[in-house]
Each structure stands twice: as structure tokens, then as C-alpha cells.
Fold this protein.
Amino acid sequence: MVDKLVGKLNALAVLNNNALGETHMLKKALLALAIGSGLLLPGTADAADPVKVGFAVAKTGLFAGAADGQIKIYELWKDQVNARGGLDVKGVKRPVELVYYDDQSDAGKVVQIYEKLITGDKVDLLLAPYGTSSHIAAAGVVERYKFPMVGNTAASVKLREIKPGNIWFTTGQMPDRLAVSLVELFKLKGIKSIALLANQLPFSLESKTYLVPALTKAGIEVKVSEEYPPSIKDMTAMLINVKQANPDAVVAFSFPSDSAIYLKQARELGIDAKFQFVEVGPTEAAFAKQFGEALNGIVTMGHWTPDNKQWTGARALFDSYVQKYNEPPSYLNAPLVYMSCQILEQAVAKVGLDRDAIRKTIATDTFDTVNGPVKFEGIENVGTPAGLLQIQGGNMTLIWPPSIATADFKPKPAWPAK
Amino acid sequence: MQPVPIRTSLIFVAVIGAASFLPQFGSEYVVAVALSFAMWVALAQSWTVLCGMTGYGSFGHAAFYGMGAYVQVLTWGTLSPWLSVPLAGLVSCLFALAAGYPALKVRGPYFVMLTFGLAEFLKFSIIGIEATLGQFSRLIIGAPSPNALYLAMLGLAAAATLITYVVSNSRFGYGLRAIREEEQAAETIGIPVARYKLTAFGLSAFIPGMVGAVMAMRLSYFEPSQAFDALISFNIVVMAMIGGSDDARGPLLGALFLIGLSELLWARAPQVYMIVLGALLVFFVLFAPQGLAKQLFGGARRRAT
Amino acid sequence: MSFLTINGVSKSFGGLQALRDISFDVEQQEVVGLMGANGAGKTTLFSLIAGHSRPSLGSIHFKGRPIAALRPDHICRQGIARTFQIVRPFANMTVLDNVIVGALYGVRQERSTARAAASAMDILADLNLANRADDPASSLTLSGQKRLEIARALATGPELLMLDEVMAGLTATEVSELLDSIRRIKRRMSLTILMVEHVMQALMRLSDRVMVLHHGELIAQGKPQEIVADPKVIAAYLGPST
Amino acid sequence: MSTLFSGQLLFAALVVGSIYVLIALGLNLVFGTMRLLDAAHGDIVMLGAYTSFWLFTLSGMSPLLSMLVAGALSAGFGAAIYYGLFRRLLANTQLSQRLEGNSLLLFFGISIILQNVAALCFDTTPRAYTYLDGIIRFGNVAMTGNRIAVLIIAAVLCAAAFLFLRFHIYGLAIKALIQHRQAAAVVGVNIERIQLLSFAIGFGLAGLAGSLLSMTEQITPFMGFPFTVAGFVTVILGGLGNLTRGMAAGMFLGFVEIYGVALTSPSLHSVLIYGVFIVVLFLQSQGLLGRRPS
């Protein structure tokens, strides 16, 4: 009885999908009528029968600001698929319907939502929640139900501890691999000393942990090394030390709010290292608006650019995003999220909605995405290298590694005085 | 303490008994909702033992929850998780006693802010400690099944409800309420005020510590800024406030009401849910300051005969 | 050894000397009235005896034991109960519950709420509050709250009861009713009473002895009739006479 | 060590401190005159920031101008919720028994509402714009124009507030009300009008602070809470209801934040701030401020 009640609540709660329009509602009603009168056997897939794709989003809470871009990509992908006539399920095109709930940025809610999506809403496919902690929370659920899901906005060496099989991560920016990329580029550009700043959040600390030994091995001196808590509001004291040390490069393992503080105050103090790396944030639209020209020369993490001609759909993704949302997508998260959709789409086109078949396909196939070929080993995407972006002349360019780069690293110009 | 009425105890046993069979006939999702309901009941009941009864409002109960979770991840792999849970409760309790000794001399809104400050202080200290240890987040691999965790949480909710009920109807409870109403007068009629407040504080930290330890296994992930999230403290206060009352009914009603509301609203319109939540809080403070319990069951009347 | 002995007690707050070298005894079952103008130090003296603050100098003995360093709850358990000049009821609790708490703690430390309730009802009856037992304390009139204050103190089972202006603000009828109640209760419970009072009628009718405090000093004590005739007292109350 | 004498550090401390002063002043006014704890104060800052952001983005209006709009709107909002909600709270004897606790919850409810209405209307994407970000040098101290503007405007507002409280008849009435409610009423202070005024000024200052911050910070619906916390820390440091000491405390907190970090380690930043907060609360509880709400 409890089940029935909750079932009803669920039915109520499924988000209305306006995009599907009235005709679809009519079809759905007819379908329901047909099932009710026993004309159709339940379980028979009809071309009109939508494919339900479920996920949790962080509409409120800690991640709400950062997660906004993720939802936008999911919506964009759905629109594109439906515009193409629907999701190709082993040859049958069926419309996509998104079912999502707010997780309040709370990992406990994430667990609940994925259980609800699987057992209550009986979704056909799953997409990922936002952030590393939510991914790890959801990993337990998909493992229990053997429900394959491609993750996107998570990066941590801890992910490798998750039992592989039902979850994969599209990122190429695992902190250890990022460290290797950074040091390679340092060596190439003759950088002998750096200053290192790190937020005390998991990803930035992991990045630091892997970078420091790699630097030592390469004989690069760490002149300043500071950590700060996420609530920092001013970096003057730290940056004065950095300026006095006068390193060849500054590496700020930072998150958006402190990245903004770094950029603001490094410019004020005139920190003129030719290589300045700011980890998370510069790819976001707000940074371009807030800092404009001052962003030129800043290096950040990311392995995508619409300019790489070898990647099918890269430019199209950029254009359609700008068209729909009137601002450029994040070069970091947008491709990660979009790739996860593409991988799922290609797997479904090949083997249909059977979960075992999807799992096998994702685990073994190579996928062609907007960010090039993706291939998984365990939970990890080994097809995409850890990349570095640099803002050059107001544009985001991919400068590392050479295999995918569309431009070369340029020493950072002086901060604009205006 | 007065004997527990037979009817109340029968209902209690029947509800707990029925709830413990939920995994057998309910879907996983129902169990998940029930687990979160049990969690909030356990937390709000614990809060009531201190704050509902003595009037010392805590905006820092996330500290106890976080401590519990931290103990669980620290002992993971070395200690049986089911041993870690009571240990987590104990550590939280000791922490409360140590912090409460000076803190409970601070009164009224200052106490509210102090508890918030202490919880944030603890959070940032643990962030710092974890960073120094080179541990930026911890994973729990191989946690007990969700059903086992649900039963554990149900047990905690039952225990917390029982504690609140027993305290509320005991001589100790009378003493605590007297402290809430008029601390100096309470002292004058022979109530050992300082010791009682401290005892209540310790008691109200014990279960949240264990809840944190169970939830760490449920989430299989620990990161200080999430485990010590101030939102946990706020949610507890809102539930207890909307439930109202200084006995075991208030937190039950508050948790039931909010979980129900969130199941109905949050999924379809998250921001609207939060707005409604805020509006409810305003409404309850202005028009029903004694909460749902008073609206449903009438005044705070209690006859000890 | 007297029942209550105050010996050389002084109290100062910063530079302000509230009490200066006060000494007196109270015998068992005696009723002692304490009078004095506002600011004479009466309430300060009560606070010292009840343990809310400590004397700067001097000692206080109750039944032969020093109590000046004890906390208020300990003093209450020794058998001293007090009321507050400005009433302090447990406002959101019922009248009955207010009194029950007193019985559960204090000297009696009653373990059973049922027994506490029974004796609380008796005390409420003594103070004409029985019919209000189930109402919230905040709903009582001032007179009712004053009586509740006494009832709660009595419930602790004291031997020494300290009443701080319980008659203030009451009508003449209420005063005389309350006087009757107090006398009745005193006999039944063999109480010793120390009372601060401005209502002279009450002092005259109830006290065995009256003491007068003036600017923190004890300036006179004796039978009520003697005190009202004492020129020092008249001077203190009306200003120095010519 | 030479770092400590850097003018750059002093400038940073002054800017951070001046924002705290503005925020805490409003918080303190509302508490002092009515004993209400405004847990939504940071959200008014957020609304002020959005006001300036949108006016700049849509019509190109300078934040130095739109701060007046933001201040006025916030003040109006303050007046509205005073009439709508708090007059009732203050008048109800049952509620005013635990006024601070109840007001904290009430404002917390308002805070949740404001944040989510903003999230609904403006979505949660961080917003920012560029204004006055040229770098100006004084000796070896470099600062962006907008931070200098923040500092100057905050200083002007503080001075104005100080003079108002010191000399204006309403300012004196506010101080009278803070010091002694009954006495103020007896000497003919129109309490209701003063309370309304305190709400309007308090909220207006928060809105202005938001406008100023919009030039230097990214704007999100959830940006307010840290400012609420900082405001409370400041107000506790200076003593609840003590306006002039509160202003000094705001500066002090700015200096703790900047110099505390410079002297110890950035990793201790938050531990330091909350440590000061806790210690001050403990110390005050031993003395004058541990009074129970009556």
C-alpha cells in the first residue's frame, strides 16, 4: 500500500516536459488507454514511447551555482536528440524525456534520488549528478542495481577506488595526470621555480599532492607553498609573499570564488610571472565578464576547444549552446557533460536499452565525441589526455598536450592597467 | 518518573515493529525516504532534549553529526562499523561535555550564535587537520546494505524518541523546563542548574553522533565541509520549531510534516519548495510559535497524576 | 547555637557599599520582619542568604553550618526557600507544575511525580489556588502569581522561608487573606520566616520581631510596637527630625 | 616580516573592514532598537548587488549611481517587512518573551525565501561585470579603482551615520531607544517611527554595501550568508546594540582577517575568525552581556 501511495506521489512529481508539446500528451493518453484496454502488451516498445532519462541536479545548495551549466547541457542534448526525431534505440527512434529532481547538493539526497529514479520512476537511462561527492554517493546505487551510468563532473584519484563496472568518468583531468601535464609544459618552457597556492578542498589538495613530487623530480623549485580554507576572502598576504619570491610560474589550485580573488589581487599587486595557472573558474562565463582582458595569458585546466577540427561536433556544440543560452559554454564542464550524453547515446544506438549490453558496450567500445575518441579502462577515460587551456586574445585556446592542442603556450602579457 | 501509559507504549512498539518490516514489502525508494525520515526524527528529538526543554537553542548540532561521521571514517577498516557507531556517539557526547561546560554559561541568542560558531570552528579545524594529514576526502568501501543501515537508523530514531519521552516525563524533565522558564528561580528551588544543562547537552549530542556514523556509511564518502554543513543544524531547528512542543511529539510531527512536504514539492519545484519552507517558518513563528504539536494537541498541559 | 546566624556581613558592589557589618540571629519558628527604605539593602541581604551572591566579609550559618559559599540550589536543599520581589513564575508551565517542580527538588527531592503532585495540590489549596491548578502560570493575576511564588517555595519543604515583599501591590482584602494563609501554613509546617515588607499591617500582625535596615546598616530591632515608636527609625523613614 | 608593514596589506584590511562596518552597522541598528537578530542581512546585501548588476548590464547605469537605487529599494523593503511582520512580533507579548530567538528564526525564514526567489528569478549562474577596474598606484601600493571607491564610499557613509547618531534628533532618539526603551518613550520618543527608521536605515546600508560589492565580487543568490556571519561576528565583537564600538569592531575584524593570516598562515584563516568569535562570546558572557532575554 505504501508503495502505491509513493508511486502516485512519484507520478505527480515527474517534471512536466513542456518541450514535448501537446501532441505528445495526446499520444501518451491514447497509449495509456490502449494499455488499459488490454490492446497492447505492457513492455512493448513503441516508437512514440519516450525514453525516460533520469538524473539528480543541484538546483539549490552549495553546488547550485556551478551545476547550472550541467543542466543546460542536458537540456540542450535532449532538444537536439528530439529535433533529430528522437533517440536511436537500436534503430527505433524514440523521444527523450528528462526526469530530474533537485538534490540540494546533498549526497544523502543523491542516493535517495537515484534509488527513486531506478525503482520508482523506472527510468530507462541515467545521467550523472554534479560534483565528486555526489558521483561517489550515486556510484553505490548504480552498483547495487547494476545500472550503468556515465559520470561527468567528477575528478579525483579516489574515484579509482570505486568498484568498476557500472560507472565511468569522462574526465581526463585526474589530478595525477594533470600534474604530469603541468610539469611537462613547465620543463618545455624553461620554468625553474613556482609558487603554489591551494584551497583546502579535496580536488585542489589532490592536485597539490601529485604536483609537488613531480616538480621535485623535474628539479623545479617550489618557492612559496600556501594552503587556505574555502572561506578565504582576501589573498593579499599570500600574494605579497608570492611577489617577493618572484617565481617563474604561479600555480593556484583554486575553486571559482577564490580563483576570482586571485585574479583580482594578483593583478592589483602586479604579479608578473609569465605562467599563471588558475585551476577552476576561468572557463566560466562570469569570469570573462568580470575580468575581460585581464584573463589574457591565464592558463587553466580543460581538454576541449571548439577549434579542434578533428573532433566532430565540437564547433556545433559551441554554436548551439550560444544560440540557446546566449553565452559561451564552460570549456571544462560542458564537454564533459556532453560527452557523457554522447557515449550513452551511441551505446543505446548499438545495443538498445538492455543494461547488461550497455554496460559491456561502454566498458569495451571506443566512442567518438565532441572531445575526440573516448575509451574506458576501469572507471577512467584513457582516451582523453589531461589538457591545459590558455586565454589568448580573449579566446580560450587549447595549448596542451600537443596531440590535441590548437595553439602554443604564450607567455602571459602584463596585466592591463586600465 | 511516572509509569508509561500502556496505550502509548503499545503504539510505539507497534509502529517500530511495523517499520522494521518495511524493507520486506516496501521498495528501495520507500526505504530510502523512511531512512531519511528516521534520521531527521533522531536528530530533532535529540535537539529537543536540550533546546526544547531548557530553551538553550543550538544552531550547531551539525558538529555532533559531523564528529560521528568523522569517527566512523577514521575507524573504518580497523573497527567493526557497528562498534564505531556507539563509539561515535560517545565521542560526540564527550565533545559536547567539554564544549558545553563553558558554553552553557552563555545565554539566549548568544548561546545560539556560540553554538553556530563552535560548529564552524570545528569544521574548519577538521578541514585543516585533514589537509595536514594529506587526506582530502575519505571513501567508505564495502558499507553494510541499505536495509541494515535503515534498521540501524530506525533504532536510533526509536532510541531518541524514547529518550525524549522519558526525559520529558521525568523529574529531570521538570527540572529542565524550569530552567527554560526562569533559570534563577529554578536554582532557588534546588535544581542543580549547571549540572542539568550539561547533562542535557551531552545527552543531546549522543544520538546525533551515532546518526553521523551511520550516514557516513550510507553516503560512503566523507568530506568535512559536507559532514559539518551548517544546513544540517538549520534543518534540525526548523523541524523542531515547526513541530514545536517540548516533548517527543513535536520532533515527530515536525519531521513528518517537512519530509512529507519535501516529497510533494521539492522534486517538482525545488526553489518553490525552499520558498514555501521559508514562508512556513515565518508563519509558524508569527502565528503558531508553539508549533504543530500545540495546534493538534492543545496546550502544554501535563498532569502528573 | 541559633537557627540562622548572620555574623559581620558586608557586601559591596564595586565602590558601592550595599551592606555594612550586619549581624543578627533568627531563632527557630520565629517570624522576623525586615524593613527599610528602597535601596537599604534588604534584597541584597536575601540574595546573600539564598546564595545568589557571596558576602564580601562575614559569615552566614544555618543550623550551625556555614552556607555563605554554597550555590543557591545547595542552600535550598539545606532548607531555605525564598520568593522574589518581582515574581518569577515558570510562565509557560501550569500552576500545578510550577509547584510540583518545587516538590521534586528542594529539601524533599521527591522521586515520584505523583506524590509531588499530591502534596502540591495541598499547598495550592492552602493558598487558594487549587481551582487554577491547570491554568498556565502566566494567566494568573499579580496576586495569584505572588501566592504561586510562595506555594513553589513551600513545596521545596523549607524550614526557613524568606518572603520578599509578597504583599506589595495587593488590595487590602488580598493582603488580609494572604496573611491568614501564611499564618495557617506557618503553624502547620512549623516554619521560621524572614520577611521583607513595606506593608506595615503585615509586618505588625505577623512579626515576632522587626529589624530596620538603613543605608546598609542595621539601625534597630525589637518588637513591632517598639520599632514603630523608635525615633531612629522614624528619622530614617521621614528624614532627620528636628 | 617586512610584509607586515606593506601598505598593500593595510589597504586590503581597510577595504575588508569597511564593508564589515557597513554591514554590521545595519545589523546593530535593528538589534539595538528592537532586539531583533537579522539573519537575512546578508541577503539584503545580495539583493543590492543584483540591483546594481542588472542596472549596469541592462542600462549601463554606473553602480555609483545605482547604489542609491539599491539603497532606496532595500530601505523600502525594510520598511515593508517592518510593517508586515515585525510590528506584529514586537507587539505580541507571548512572542516578545523570546524575542531574539524568535526573530532569528523569522529572519532565517526570510533569508531562505529571498535566496530562492533570487535563484528562481535570476538563476544560480554567478554574475559579474567590470567597472572602475583601472589600477591606481600610490607609491608601491596598487589598487583597483573600484576598491578605492568601496573604501571612500564606506568611509563617507560611516561618517554620515556617526554624525547622524551624534547630532540629528532622530539619531539621538535611536540611541535613546537603544539605551533605555521605557525612558525613551517617557521623554516623548515616537518608538514606532524610530523602529521603522532603524529598519529602513539598516536595510538601506546593507543594500548599499551590496552595490559596492557588486563591483568587486561575483554575484550569486547565495552570496549573502558569509556576510551575515561576518556581520554577526562583528556585532558580537563590539557588543550587541553598541553602534560606535560595532563600527570599530568591523575594522578590527578586517585587520584580524588580513593581518591574522599574514602573521600565522592562510590555512588558519577561518579557524582564527571563529576562534575570535568564540572567545569574545565566552568573555562577554562572564561580564555584562550574558544577560537573559527578558
Q: What stands out?
A: Chain D touches chain C through one residue (CB under 8 Å).
